[in-house]
Amino acid sequence: MAESIEIRGGAGAEEAAAIAAVVAAIEQQEREASAVQPRPIRQSPWVRAGRPLENRAPVTSAEYDRLPGRDIDSED
Question: What share of the chain is helix, strand, coil (3-state, %, to 5)?
Fold first, then answer.
């Protein structure tokens, strides 16, 4: 934000006041916008419906063999 502004180009008192008012309004809007906390990004229900329900980490082969239903000693 500017401490002061210099208006050149032959602007009169009314024009300079209008420009200063616009600059002040923009600076006020920027202050208000930066004071608001952003909302978290939320995925729509349609996106969430397509996601897998369970995210399991990869397991080692020994852990996989110990999973229920994985009887490696029996032969079919």
Answer: 45, 0, 55
